[in-house]
Amino acid sequence: MKKSRQLDFSYHFNIFLRNVAKELLRLFYHTGYRILRPGKRFYCENIFAGKNGLVFSNGEITCVCADHGLINLGNVNQASLEEIWRGEEFQKLRNAFKANRLPLRHCSACFALKKIYKPTPDLYQIAPFFWNIHIETTPVCNLDCAICRRDEVEKHRGGTQLSKATVYKTLDEIIKHKTNKFVLFFGFGEPLLDRNVYEYVTYLKERFPEVIVSISTNGIPLDNDQNVNALLNTPLDVIVFSVDGITPEAYVRYRRGGDFNRALGGMTRLTQERRKRGQKHPLIIWQYLYFRWNDSDEAIRATIKKARELGVDILHFLPTRTPITGISWKNQLRRNHGVIYKFGGVDHDYNPHDRARVIHVSNEMEDIPL
Ligand SMILES: C[S@@+](CC[C@H](N)C(=O)[O-])C[C@H]1O[C@@H](n2cnc3c(N)ncnc32)[C@H](O)[C@@H]1O
Description:
By secondary structure, the protein is an alpha/beta fold. Helices cover about 35% and strands about 15% of the residues. α7 packs parallel to α8 and α9 packs across α11.
């Protein structure tokens, strides 16, 4: 396991800024916002509709994918997922929402927070089970991304990998309920460093074929034919490559400890081998987070060109607000919710961000809009 990060001013400054911003926003929601928008109710898609849950590699459950281990709603090593979903800790959060309060600092800036003007009587009804769940089978990572709190992740998980017995117990529950649209095998580690992940994907898809199973990777473990073949032998539906840059310099500003050429090498090997096999799955997505250092038109054009050359199915430019000091202001100020390029008539309805702009790129298209 990687050693904890050395004291890094920018890292701690960003975390401080983020916590202050979230707390101030929460204060505003509880005060001024109520006066400006009387009658609005707060609602959370995750804790009522099961839109997101995350099983950490030490078995603890949290409701939000951007939490490094601060919220503990129960542990799958000790209870079933369903018991936790209906348990006291989830209920406490729900009670706060019913009282029109945000229970956690994180809630104020969370994607799952909705403000409802005309609440229906069934607004706070609880879904039978999850719609989407992340399973972090390993906390281990080969990178040290600028805002990924590896020190907290590693301290919190204690280096523990989810035991096979716990993973299968969790998958069996998902298979029994059949309410999940998605199961995502990743959290804060690099999922492809856990060699068991291939058999987990196969086990789940064989028993619950309708569920969409996805993995997000930094791509480096796939710069290796053995792993590419192991992955292509599974029925995995979607793979997301996190590669935010088109030059090694831009890439490593966020993906510290990463290797741009190897990440691209992973994507290249997978697309080539999938083509050779005449296989359609997994859908291959290049996810590119916009930062202030990688958002020039020139970089975006070069990335689109590269993605097309490689033969990925989708290139997804995604704005982020973390780290605050890395924000791509031109995208934030335009209220840009991201751009999704779909190449060569890909027909998958992948669109994780409803408000993102979707551009279909046909094989003949020469001038691709930005
Ligand atoms: C923490 S990563 C771990 C999984 C895997 N190691 C990877 O790199 O994709 C999980 C997801 O979070 C995304 N992510 C990382 N930093 C982010 C940020 N600052 N804002 C939004 N998403 C981010 C990654 O791109 C990835 O899709």
